[in-house]
Amino acid sequence: MLRNLLRSMLLISLLLSACGGASGLGSHKLKVVATFSVLGDLAAIVGGDEIQLTTLAGPGVDSHTFSPTAADTAAVADADIVFENGLQFEPWLDALYTSSGSKAARVVVSKGITPLTVEDNSQTVTDPHIWHDVTYAVQAVRAIRDELVSADAKNATAYKSNAGVFIARLQELDTWVYVQVNKLPEDRRKLVTTHDSFGYLAKRYGFQIIGTVLPTSTEGASPSAQQVAALVEAVKAAGVPAIFGENVTNNSLLQQVADEAGVKAVTTLYTDALGPAGSGGETYEKMMRSNVLTIVAALLK
Ligand SMILES: [Zn+2]
Question: How far does residue 91's CA lie from ligand 1's centre (Å)?
Fold first, then answer.
């Protein structure tokens, strides 16, 4: 009787220690944080059911000016991996990571990309908006896959399979964007946006950036009256029928520029964040398709 009881207790303690596991994971899911909604979508697709994902700056939220909450601090503190865009897109992340005391691996998905630069109030700064070039989204997916495989080898097959299917779809998407843009006469491939979010899209798919309403790469500054007047003249000179506002910006100045230049303001682009569920921009692929269809239709008129 006593011997049976001791044997049961030994079995229970063995089971309990197995749950603690040498890998540190045991039967628990890998805890993954993505800094913003686009990256969250890529991580969700590659990680599938095998990860527990928290996205910090959610749909419609501007990462340039994001303020983390106590819940965000807790998620980072608890995470095994943090996926970040890098290139100063998350200016709040270093402080959040440090204050959380996190031991998570930080993975910068833009690593290895040669970044574009933009003029930010007469200073040259790095352009972080890499995901508008689909080939860079593919690169981000590969970085996510490689990190998940190395951190959680028992689910490596699932991560590789999820990433493989997704990358094939993204390569089709990249080709599709070219086909759509080719419907535009070359002299119509010109963009004016609220902030400078489309440098990578322009470079990859052959648009010219005429100008932006805001003089900085973040949404923190206002243009002078002369800057607004100069942009109105640039829009007139470019001969474009429409200019574009974004889901993460206040588009009232863009509307003013459009009115003064006598063109249409189209304010339905998803730039630095996905849209909410049901918006038609709630995944990375939907966001890209929606943006490209919107731009091509508006510039063809
Ligand atoms: Zn931005």
Answer: 12
Distance in Å, CA 194 to ligand 1 centroid: 10
Q: How far apart are CA 131 and CA 139, in angstroms?
A: 9
Residues with beta carbon < 5 A to ion ligand 1? 197, 272
Q: How many domains is the chain built from?
A: 2
218 falls in which pLDDT band (50, 70, 90)? Answer: low
Cα gap 140→294, rounded to integer Å = 25
Domain-terminating residue out of 175, 192, 215:
175
Same domain for 233 and 165: no
* Same domain? 131 vs 167: yes
122 conformational bin, left if phi > 0, alpha if psi -120 to 50, beta if neither? left
Question: Which of 140, 175, 210 marks a domain boundary?
Answer: 175
Give the residue numbers spanning the domain of 74.
Answer: 25-175
* Residue 75 within a domain: yes
Question: Which CATH number characterizes residue 206's domain?
Answer: 3.40.50.1980
**Would the pTM of this model clear 0.85, i.e. be above it?**
yes
Q: Does a structural domain hold residue 60?
A: yes
Compute φ and ψ for 29, nearest 5 degrees. Answer: -80, 150
Report the separation in Å between the CA atom of 52 and the middle of ligand 1, taken as the mean of its atom positions. Answer: 27
Could you write out the three-class secondary structure of 193-248? ECCCCCHHHHHHHCCEEEEECCCCCCCCCCCCHHHHHHHHHHHHHHCCCEEEEECC
Q: Within this chain, do residues 193 and 163 fall inside the same structural domain, yes or no?
A: no
1 pLDDT higher than 60: no
* 55 CA → ligand 1 middle, Å: 17
